[in-house]
Design goal:
two-stranded antiparallel ribbon; 7 helices
């Protein structure tokens, strides 16, 4: 029954996307977030210890989807080096705290808050280390500087290891520049006579 409802909602989302022209390419984390929220909602129907387990599972799945959504939007996938702390123990504590809040169980609220606090502290500590000390995400590739030995004939560039590399691949690997190939008028007249005036 629940699976059928989920499939109907997903189908409706695809239909809506096709009708409106909205692309779900960047919204793919919703396919993780929504099932997580459904699990969390099911925790109240289950009740008892089973409900706590579903709340924790739903919180973990939802948090993974949220982290992936942020990473998809920013392109900072290397943040998984410390974002795991938001998933476990962080989201475990959040699931416990929320379930305890909605069901009136003070012991779950207290324990959940403590576990979520540990997750947040780990996240902040590892984020400071990986970003502040190591520079994990960085500011992108370093700029090209200094002399670049380039062949006067084939235009290949010699890298630090002494290997001759195509100019396009050398620059693309070391910068955010990308190449689109075309030809100038002079080369067009030489290589395509009669087609280029």
């Amino acid at each position: 029954m629940v699976l059928g409802a989920i499939l109907i909602v997903v189908g409706g989302a695809f239909l809506l996307g096709n009708v409106t022209g909205f692309s779900l390419d960047a919204a793919w984390p919703l396919f993780i977030i929504i099932p997580g929220l459904v699990l969390f909602g099911a925790s109240f129907a289950a009740g008892g210890d089973a409900g706590v387990g579903l709340a924790i599972a739903g919180s973990i799945v939802t948090t993974v989807g949220l982290v992936l959504a942020v990473q998809e939007a920013t392109g900072l996938y290397a943040t998984w080096a410390y974002a795991w702390a938001l998933v476990a123990p962080g989201s475990v504590g959040v699931g416990m705290f929320l379930h305890g809040t909605f069901t009136g169980r003070q012991d779950l609220r207290r324990d959940g808050l403590r576990v979520a606090g540990v997750g947040l502290a780990l996240f902040i500590g590892f984020a400071l280390f990986f970003e502040g000390v190591i520079g994990l995400s960085g500011d992108g590739p370093p700029p090209l500087e200094g002399l670049l030995p380039i062949c006067g004939f084939c235009k290949r560039i010699r890298d630090q290891e002494g290997q001759w590399r195509r100019m396009e691949s050398f620059i693309t690997e070391r910068s955010s520049a990308r190449f689109s190939h075309t030809f100038c008028e002079e080369c067009g007249r030489i290589h395509y006579p009669g087609y280029v005036d």
